[in-house]
């Protein structure tokens, strides 16, 4: 499932759209960026409420291809600019992390 297909499937808006629409290899849900660095897998999505530039830096370190920001958090311009520079998709949804995680899990596992 590509990033754009996943965005549509979970009902998220693509806010930073300059990225390669690759297949997602999974996802990781966390608001603790050190936890993301230790446990997230390459080629996945990060589901979080951490809407700031450091989230992009961490995503780059672990090769996250998409960041899904939950709860309609405001997205700062420096975060979007950093994501654009790194080619990381940024998605925004009104849903919480639990709901988005469940939806994305079901989509990625054909449920």
If you had to describe this structure to a student in words, what would you say it looks like?
The protein is an alpha/beta fold and 111 residues long. It contains five helices and five strands. It has helices spanning 3-10, 33-39, 53-61, 77-86, 97-108, and strands at residues 13-16, 27-29, 45-48, 66-69, 89-92. It has a five-stranded mixed β-sheet with strand order 1-5-4-3-2, sandwiched between helices. α4 links the parallel β4 (66-69) and β5. The longest helix has 12 residues, at 97-108. 34% of the residues are buried. The mean pLDDT is 97.
What topology emerges from the helices and strands here?
Layout: H1 3-10, E1 13-16, E2 27-29, H2 33-39, E3 45-48, H3 53-61, E4 66-69, H4 77-86, E5 89-92, H5 97-108
Parallel strand pairs: 2-3, 3-4, 4-5
Antiparallel strand pairs: 1-5
Helix pairs in contact: 2-3, 3-4
Helix/strand/pairing category: alpha/beta
Whole-angstrom Rg: 12 Å
Q: What's the total count of β strands?
A: 5
Question: Helix and strand string, N-terminal first?
Answer: HEEHEHEHEH
Shape: globular
How many helices?
Answer: 5
Low-confidence stretches: none
- Helix amount, in percent? 40-55%
Report the span from N to C terminus.
13 Å
Overall mean pLDDT stands at: 97
Strand percentage lies at 15-25%
Largest sheet: 5 strands, mixed
């Amino acid at each position: 499932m590509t990033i754009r297909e996943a965005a549509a499937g979970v009902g998220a808006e693509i806010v930073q759209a300059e990225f390669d629409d690759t297949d997602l290899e999974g996802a990781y849900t966390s608001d603790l960026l050190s936890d993301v660095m230790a446990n997230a897998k390459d080629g996945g999505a990060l589901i979080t409420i951490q809407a700031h530039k450091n989230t992009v830096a961490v995503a780059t370190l672990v090769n996250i291809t998409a960041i899904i920001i939950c709860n309609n958090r405001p997205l700062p311009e420096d975060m979007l600019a950093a994501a654009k520079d790194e080619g990381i998709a940024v998605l925004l949804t009104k849903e919480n992390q639990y709901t988005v995680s469940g939806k994305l899990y079901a989509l990625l596992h054909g449920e």
